Amino acid sequence: MATTAQSHRQPARVVQLRKGTTLEMVRLACPDTTQAMRISESFGLTVLDSDGIRDLHERMLVETADSLHEGLGERAMQIHLQRIVGAYVGSAHGAGQFYSRAVTEARDATAKSACDARDEDLNGPVGFDGQAQRRREFAADMGLQAHALLMAAEGAVRAYEQVVGENWKPFERPMDNIGATVDRKAADLQMAAFG
Fold first, then answer.
1. How far apart are CA 29 and CA 39, in angstroms?
2. Dist. CA 6–CA 175, nearest whole Å
3. Among 57, 70, 93, 106, which residue carries the largest CB count within 10 Å?
4. How far is 183 from 190, CA to CA, in rounded Å?
5. 3-state secondary structure at position 128
6. 17 - beta bridge partners?
7. 17: part of which helix (H) or strand (E)?
8. CA gap 9, 73 in Å, rounded
9. How many other CB atoms sit within 10 Å of the CB of residue 36?
10. Distance between CA atoms of 71 and 80, rounded to whole angstroms?
11. Higher pLDDT, 53 or 113
12. Could you tell me the CA-to-CA distances from 140 to 29, 31, 37, 41, 45 in Å, in that order?
């Protein structure tokens, strides 16, 4: 009677990572300095000091790191700044996505208002803007906000690189996929029952 040796090796576990938001993703979603200038001029809005916003945030985070230098070790400082910079980048990315949606709605409303057969999209009474104009103005405001947050994020990334000495990259955490893990374990147990 021959016995077969069963292998009880655990299969290698593949951990999927949740991709973080990069500064490049933010730059694609938010208006750059030239576009922010055009928005300001076209809508009569305040012209932002892009370089000033970026430089101020860089200085602020570098000074913060200097004040924490005695209390934090090198790795703790890196983790702390990683979280702070990630918050700046995430905030700017969210603003950029919101701006993109606002532009899409403004374009749709403007295209609809160009059709003379649509009564609901006509301008309001004298002295009041129509819906398309309000949406364009809202998109312009959101564009400047997104640009300001982009500049703050760029300053934060520069500060990280100055303090830590390496390029900032987003933290990638394992995806929470507990259900699939439990299901996989149950399936393995059931298959083991067949021998």
1. 15
2. 32
3. 93
4. 11
5. coil
6. 174
7. strand 17-18
8. 40
9. 23
10. 12
11. 53
12. 14, 10, 11, 10, 9
pLDDT, one tens digit per residue, over 123-159 is 555 554 688 888 999 999 999 999 999 999 999 999 9
Q: CA 106 to CA 135: how far, in whole Å?
A: 5
Q: What angle do CA 142, 144, 148 make, to 5 degrees?
A: 115
For the chain, percent of residues with pLDDT exceeding 90: 51
Residue 19 corresponds to which tokens in the numbers above? 């991709």
192: amino acid identity, one letter: A
CA–CA separation, 58 vs 52, rounded Å? Answer: 10
* DSSP 8-state assignment for residue 167: -
Tokens matching residue 102: 């606002």
Q: How buried is 30 (Cβ within 10 angstroms: 0-12 exposed, 13-18 middle, 19+ buried)?
A: buried
| Domain boundaries defined on the chain | 17-60+73-168
97 vs 87, 130, 137, CA distance in Å?
A: 15, 25, 17
Sequence-distant (6+) residues with CB within 8 A of 161 are 167, 168
Distance separating alpha carbons of residues 67 and 96, to the nearest angstrom: 32
Place of tokens 């947050």: 149
What integer pLDDT is reported at residue 5 of this predicted model?
53
Residues 6+ apart with CB under 8 A from 65: 77, 81, 159, 163
Instruction: Provide the b/e sequence for 156-182 (b: ≥16 CB within 10 Å).
Output: bbbbbeebbeeebebeeeeeeeeeeee
Tokens of 55: 């430089």
